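If you are new to this repository, start here. Below is one unmodified record pulled from the training split, so you can see the exact layout before writing a loader.
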Amino acid sequence: MKHIKAVLIVLFGILLDQITKYYVAHNFIQGARQKVIDGFFYLTYVRNTGAGFSILQGQRWVFIILTFIALPLFIYLYVKSDPGHKLERFAYLLLISGTIGNFIDRVLYGSVVDFLDFIIFGYDFPVFNVADIFITVGVGLYLLLTLLETKHA
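And here is the target side for that same chain:
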C-alpha cells in the first residue's frame, strides 16, 4: 500500500507509451511522414534497433542486459529516496516507466517504435517516442536537482 501511487504512475506511463506506439504501428506506414505542424513537428513511424540517435543499431541484447541492470537500480533508488523529495522520486518513476516501455518493445518486437519527429532550427532531430521523453525528462530532472542541491550545500 505504501507505494501504490508510485505503481499507478509507472503503470500510467507504460500504458501511455505502449498505446501511442500501438496506434502508430497499426495506423502508419513505416517511414511515412505525416505533417502536424509544417516545418516543425511530424509523425514519422520508424523502427529503431539502437538507442538515441540510432547508436548501437542491432545491439538488442546489449539494451536488454542494460535494462536488467538499470531497472533494479532505479527501483532501489526510488525506494531508498527520501519521501519528502517528491521531484527526485518522480524522476525515478519517469526513468522506470520509460525503461520498461522501451524494454517491452525490444523483447516483443526486437526494435523500438519511434514516431515523434521534430525539426528544430533547421535540424531534423532524431525520431523518438513517449518512453524516450520519460527517460530524458527523468535524467534531466535528476541532474537539475543534483546541481541545485550541490549549489546549496
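Two things worth knowing about this chain: Residues 4-28+48-115+126-152 form one domain. The chain is about 60% helix and 15% strand.
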